[in-house]
Design goal:
The complex is a heterodimer of chains A (735) and B (164). With 735 residues, chain A is mostly beta strands. Chain A is built from nine helices and 44 strands. Chain B has two domains: 1-79, Rna Polymerase Sigma Factor, Chain: A, CATH 1.10.1740; 96-164, Winged helix-like DNA-binding domain superfamily/Winged helix DNA-binding domain (Arc Repressor Mutant, subunit A), CATH 1.10.10.10. Classes of the chains: A mainly beta (735), B mainly alpha (164).
Chain lengths: 735, 164
Amino acid sequence: MTDDPFSPSGPDSQPESGGGTPEEDARLRELLRAGSEAAPGDAFSAVFAVRSRVRRGRIRLGGLTAFVMAGLVAGLVLVPAGSRPSHTPRVATGTTPPAYQLTGALVSFNSCASYLSYLRSEAMAVVGPYGLQPDDADDLVQPGAMTFGPSQAGPAGVAMGASSADAVNSSPAASDNTYSQTDDQVAGVDEPDTVKTNGDLVVTLEGSTLRVLDLHAHVIGSLQLSGDTGGGFLLAGDQVLVFSSTSVTGPEPLDFGGAYSNSPQPAASPAVARVAVVDLSDPSQPRLVRTFLFDGTIVAARLVDGQVRLVLQTDGPRITFVTPSSTGSNEAATAANRALIASSTLNEWLPEWQIENPDGSTTALQPVASCDSVARPQQASGLSTVSILSLDPASGTPGPGLSVVAAGDTVYATADQLYVAGPAGATPYPEAGVVQYGCCTMMPPAGASTRIYAFETPASGPPLFEGVGSVPGWLINPYAMDEDSNGLLRVASTSQSPGGTTESQITVLSDSGGHLAEVGSAGDLGPGEYIRAVRFIGEQAYVVTFQTFDPLYIVDLSNPRHPVLAGQLDQPGFSEFLYPLPGQRLLGVGVQLTDNEPSGLIVATYDVSNPAHPRRLDSSVLASGYQYVAQGYDPHAFLYWAPVDLALLAVPSDGTYPGSGGASSMYTGLGGDSSAVAAYQISASGQLTRTATLSHGTDVATRSVVIGNEVWAVTSGGIMTADLTDLPATTWHPY
Amino acid sequence: MRDEESFGRYVMKAYPDLVGRAVLLVGDHGHAEDLVQISLASVYAHWRRVREPDAYVRTVMARKAIGWRVRRWHSELPTDPLPESAGGSDWLAESDLSSVVRQALLALPPEQRAVVVLRYFDDCSEAEIAAVLKCSTGTVKSRASRALASLRANGLLTEEGHMR
């Protein structure tokens, strides 16, 4: 392997001693080659498996939740603590006693002292020679430092319901231009993305460069931001909020290409999330106003009526633990770390925020939530803290937050509700009996369940705890949750029985006195398979499961107490993305299988007007030899423009392997370029006609929006536009 | 999304090799895939900063493999180093030799096993192994020496040697 940095390259590279005779060494090398001739494994499934694990946040949990005991969620009881005006915020500040004392499944801390002593004792139970990381943890991996990509931010999608007009905004301002945003899961609940428009301006984020464009795709202003801005941005009036991950304070890039030294590994510093506020009141001069810094990572952000809601996860205390390499022995390191926990202080545990001014100065740290606004599940759920808070973009102070000592990784939000789902009592890989084999290694632990915390997020005032419930197994993404018109939460999940068999189910939860109680469920979907895509549309749930075949299940939820399987459609391959088209049709984007091998990206339309007999109307190969459905993990890469029945799909490939040193075209069908936005005209009968392919060389096309009469393909190097009435002709506007 | 895709393609390319290495580290195919996937998930967290993914994932794998037994053995039979039934039918076709090798490796303590794999499979220097395993080069040497002695005693290092 030429790129193997471990290959002999220096005087130090040959084993000098401690080895065998040259003959023995040679024989051992040969034997190891033989021993490594494993069955190759299913790399294709592995990609999904790894992705799932990343999404589930299991890797980051490490020792932090290793001690969690599985448990049932008991009822949550709200006990009024004395009389109070009915509109008194439940979040108290300072020493004011909480208006409610939470007991049952969620327990409030009644004082900072009880909060601190709880966390200290929980931490003491698991601390070891590497602090709160498991003994074998690679300290290359920083807890909570997951790449903050769209899938973490909460994939966005489309407005629900058959009314495709939901996806069409018209400018409330003077402009009478028609335009699209990229789609959101819930209409009116905007999700961070890399392109936004208010009808007068278009704002894009490429790398860490924020650009303001006029409606002719000319750049009129730009701003270079610091940090990794992979979290996208929100546009609220004249304010842009850019979400960044933690690279500013994270460990330096590790260069394994160079020689190993015995110098200590860089210490993993606690994650810090950044929210940069940029003012666009003069679009030619975007101005950085301030940057909010929060302990942890931002799981999701939503914009509703000018208010931003943040879901923050903070992993463990901000304590720099020692390791055996500095103390000389595991025992000494453990003892030192125990002492660090015993003497840990409140501000090392409570998630905090501060403001970084453009001149680099910072304000004092303040807690995101006061101690009495923190709760813990009755069943301990690790040392991570999930916090909900609101942020007025014009304000220099976040609203008071609410925290739960638990992990949360999947967020679904409506205009006034917010649901955070996370592993319930689940132990991270590989502690539990999670070892499943072959194809199904992506499965969650047998018996694992997902806990869902519900919060009310009123238009003004702080968020309120509402309830907690649980469903079997785990959720694929935010689309696995959906609130119906009566406020019932429908959840699609895949679970695994102790015997290792998987199945998927729909569970309907209802808030009854703080407990999200199950009122109905439909199980046994796709035995042995797992959910690849899910979409709730009105009273139907559309669920794609996959092992080798693609059943598209339709579950009728018109009676939420008795959901029933209404019909199914089996076909080779599978969809990873579903979208409701008008006229009771569905669009799916998925992987085409040929001889059970993935062979390309495919777009298909379905007639679901008769749920008992869904049928495929048409399909088209989007790109041969390509198999990553961007829309599956990044629904913003899809846009349906209802006025002219045009579906726009980005194929955001850069065409390269890491380390391969250059682009290699691996697939065909994108007009010779490695990345493109493909436009499909969809006829009334569901026929798909490829009308344009918007691309520019090796520039990576990530998004498409419609501005006036033009389709814009947003790429890494500029904007490719095409007139809707003159497809496929395109015009290139370089940045 | 670009990260996700380039990561996906890296996995597609590197997976078989990584599973092969993992089999040496943890003994059977099911555990091996699990180890690889867990390690890849860790790598993914830093994907855009990882310059040498192969090296990075191997380091993560070696470290995790050492903790593997500690965790697994609580719930598995310590007297049965080869979880025979775990694999699944696709794994029955393994050759006798590779099975013998894996069985011999499994008989080693995981720390020694990791040293053997890094040294003889990955051709790492002792300094590199020390860095990967976060121990001294002296420890690497002593582990290697003890591992070799065990393998020798098993007859693995001689052509005629046969484990039974």
